[in-house]
Amino acid sequence: MVDLLYPVAISRLSGSKMLESGLEKRLANLVPMKPGQNRHTTKRERIAAKLAELIAEYFPSGGYSVMDAARLKLAAQHYVDAETCRDPVTRQRATRCAEYLLSKLRPPAAPRIPSAADQAALALELLQKQLPDGV
After folding, report:
1. Is the pTM of this model over 0.85?
2. How far is Cα 43 from Cα 46, in angstroms, rounded to an integer?
3. Over 60: is that where the pLDDT of 104 sits?
């Protein structure tokens, strides 16, 4: 009964237009989900955001394999579970599992820099090709 009288009492106050709009905003924010949203869709969105963050951190220029993509997705799922979990033991377990999966990632192969011995062999070949045969 008190909840029903509260908006009526506010509307009687001076400047009620300002208070009603504030009340409407507050009541609109009390609704946790919009139509079509549920806990599954919000969790999926959180995982996708975390996955995008992890990909940007570990593979900024792309070049990850299918196995790396699977590990990144699973690590994102564990991180979201750790963020939303209330039990500290489960939270720590999920975080450690995500860190373990991320430690298994292989960075993209960097272009191979020729060693000094390879460079010396190439220089010798070039010199032999350029020198005249009689010398």
Report:
1. no
2. 5
3. yes
Report the alpha-carbon distance of residue 64 to residue 108 in Å, rounded: 6
Report the interhelical angle of 66-84 vs 88-103 (nearest 10°): 160
Q: Is 58 exposed, middle or buried (0-12, 13-18, 19+ CB in 10 A)?
A: middle
Query: Which pLDDT score is estimated for 101?
Result: 96
Q: Round the CA-based radius of gyration of the chain to a whole number and report it.
A: 31
Quick check: helix, strand or coil at residue 65?
coil
Q: Which residues contact 98 (CB under 8 A, 6 or more apart)?
A: 74, 75, 76, 78, 79, 82
Distance of CA 65 to the CA centre of its chain: 17
How many whole angstroms separate alpha carbon 131 and alpha carbon 133? 6
Q: Which two tokens stand for residue 24?
A: 């409407």
Q: Which of 42, 47, 51 is nearest to 102 (CA)?
A: 51
